[in-house]
Design a protein that fits this description.
There is one protein chain. Helix 4 crosses helix 7. This protein is α/β, with parallel strands linked by helices and 270 residues long. The two termini are 31 Å apart. It contains seven helices and nine strands, in the order H-E-E-E-E-H-H-E-E-H-E-H-E-H-E-H. The chain binds hypoxanthine. Hypoxanthine (HPA) binds next to strand 5, strand 8 and strand 9.
Length: 270
Amino acid sequence: MLETIKQTADYLKGKIGEIPNTAIILGTGLGELANEIEEKNEIPYTEIPNFPVSTVEGHSGKLIIGTLGGKKVLAMQGRFHYYEGYNMQEVTFPIRVFQALGIEYLFVSNAAGGMNSSFDVGDIMLIEDHINFFPEHPLRGKNFEELGTRFPDMSAAYDKELRQMAMDIAKEKNIKLQHGVYVGVQGPTFETPAEYNFFRIMGGDAVGMSTVPEVIVANHAKMRVLAFSIITDLGVLGKIVEVSHEEVQEAAKIAQPMMAEIMRTIIQRV
Ligand code: HPA
């Protein structure tokens, strides 16, 4: 594993030049934030040694190196989902490569179903914490001390200072920002009404099929993480309607400009 990570990191070092301190994972419907990245160099995942290849519609699959808000960043357009059949090592492989490159900050976005009754479709939720409801843990198995400790702390998986910055930025820019707990599930089914209710009672505000594995590995790697969900549908009893992948993508577009504004600003400031 260590050799594979090093090989990929070395390949990218040869392509990137000066290594940025920030990486972004652009989730469902948020790929357009990539259009705001300037002076960019794009590397399709298919060209990156050892990188899994994304298969889902709407996830185009490339690494983008460029500047966002004047700051050099590395962005993943398209991520690897557990439901696609990748194992946890594959899902989180890019994070290991970021670690090997010396990336310090990880910004993540995703689409999620909102279970908090004060949420609306199109809201942005700052993730304050998560509940790992995946059936497999990305750190299961041999621990490489070079990568991180056997029993990582998760008391502030989403960096407190970055969360405060995000809240301040949202306030400054008059952007409505919800906050709450993200429940990570494997999918690919959306939830039944009983499951949404269960996750709500369990302490969740939003539920989605990504992010948690990457954030766990980023914490293992001691990166500072900030993540947002775009609420694309509601899992609130009485408000649950049929939902499709296309509707999720459409709803994510509503919040996209605001999400981009928050991301751009915070990246400028770190
Ligand atoms: N559930 C799980 N994942 C999701 C949802 C949802 O309601 N919406 C977008 N991704």
